[in-house]
Amino acid sequence: MSENKIACVESGEFEKRIVNFDFHHKIRQVASGIGYCLILTENGEVYFKGKLKGYDSQDFIKIETNSFIAFIASGEFFFLLMDQFNQLYIYGDFGKTYSKLTESVKIEDEIKFISCGADIVVFVTQNNELIIGGCVQAFDGFAETLNDFIKIDKLPTKQIKDLQCGYYHTIILDDNGNVFGSGENTRGQLATKYFLCKFSYFFL
User: Fold this and answer.
1) End-to-end alpha carbon distance in the chain
2) Rounded mean pLDDT of 52-76?
3) Distances from the Cα of 35 to the Cα of 5, 38, 69, 99, 105, angstroms
């Protein structure tokens, strides 16, 4: 919003409340999860408000980092920061049994944008490839934990305009307006009657 004011919905009450906080610079990106909000300013600073594992604040507090933050993204109970050198930092509760993924990770590819699900994070590279980490849902309905980030380069399109994550599924929109999906479809999340295999994207 203008003048660095944020409109918030507090504790599930559908009443807009203007939060006055001086972020010192213009807001570039906003992300939120369950019970928290994250702000990225144009000078690469990150501010947090709410309650999450390791953080509990009723007012915006600055997340101390040693570098310029280029991207933020939020999952249900975790958020991540990526700096200008593609170093990734994960905060909160990112799944249940992740070891390697809870530490700082260097992503070698140039990133275009990021999306998060319940326990999954997906990066879209400038070459329109996907890098996936976290917990993915297999076609048989059982979750599989990845112990490392993996690259998915066999996609039905090479012109990814947008990608969004659900709990355990992802949707891709390409430059031609085509929509592709992958992941769990137990409740018709992907608008098809079929269960879909992990890492395989189908035209919807």
Assistant:
1) 35
2) 87
3) 19, 11, 22, 24, 26
